[in-house]
Amino acid sequence: MATVWRSQCAFARLLIGKIAQNPNNSPDLCTKLFRGPISVTSRNYSNYANSPFIERIKEQYEYDIIKNPPEWAYVERLLPFDTIPVVTPKENYPSGWIPPREEAVHLPYFVSRTKNHELPIYLNITYRGMRKITKIKKIEGDIWLLNDTLKAHLKETAGKYVETRVHELGKFIEVKGDYVNVIRNWAHSKGF
């Protein structure tokens, strides 16, 4: 008996919901009355075979093609470079960028620059800012000697033991903590 009563209550709730959705108080609960004409043109085509052919779309804008206009110099300034240009040597740069030195080539390990001439030292923040890992990429040569030298420098600078992880095949070292600026200054002092 209780099951029948519950199903009747559910039907009553559904019926009241349908009446509330009926816009014009029409006697039929499943139909809605529309005052305007019903559009038949909108149709969803389920497959490629039944869809109509696409006609050529008219261009919205009129334009002329001109060869070598004088305004093209302004457009060329906005286009990205095809290749990164070679850096012209200066005494110092306004951005604070430091170029690599020749003495770094003679070390048993080497950290090469990115294509934008920057050091590949990054900070990876995960777990909503709780875990910070500094990553040094593009390492060539003796990665284990670089790891020992870097650990000694970080222990001297930070005053505590610092965890590192060496990925020999991936050619990168991960340092536990935020040591991007310390490692970048160390790399500049080595000449990378």
Structural overview:
The chain is of the alpha+beta class. The protein has a 4-stranded antiparallel beta sheet with strand order 2-3-6-5, with helices on one face. A two-stranded antiparallel sheet has the order 1-4. The N and C termini lie far apart (84 Å). About 3% of the residues have low confidence. Its main location: mitochondrion. Belongs to the mitochondrion-specific ribosomal protein mL49 family. It is found in: Mitochondrion.
Produce the secondary structure layout.
Blueprint: H1 2-21, H2 72-78, E1 109-111, E2 121-126, E3 131-136, E4 139-141, H3 143-158, E5 164-167, E6 172-176, H4 180-190
Antiparallel strand pairs: 1-4, 2-3, 3-6, 5-6
Task: Give a summary of the structure in a few sentences.
The protein has 192 residues and is of the alpha+beta class. The protein has 4 helices and 6 strands, in the order H-H-E-E-E-E-H-E-E-H.
Helix content percent band: 25-40%
Strand content: 5-15%
- Count of DSSP-assigned helices: 4
Mean pLDDT: 82
What is the makeup of the main sheet? Answer: 4 strands, antiparallel
**End-to-end CA span:** 84 Å
Structural class: alpha+beta
Q: Assign an overall shape.
A: extended
- The beta-strand count equals 6
Task: Fill in the keyword field for this structure.
Large ribosomal subunit protein mL49, alpha+beta, structural constituent of ribosome, 6 strands, 4 helices, 192 residues, Ribosomal_mL49, extended, two-stranded antiparallel sheet, 4-stranded antiparallel beta sheet, 14% strand, ribosomal protein, ribonucleoprotein
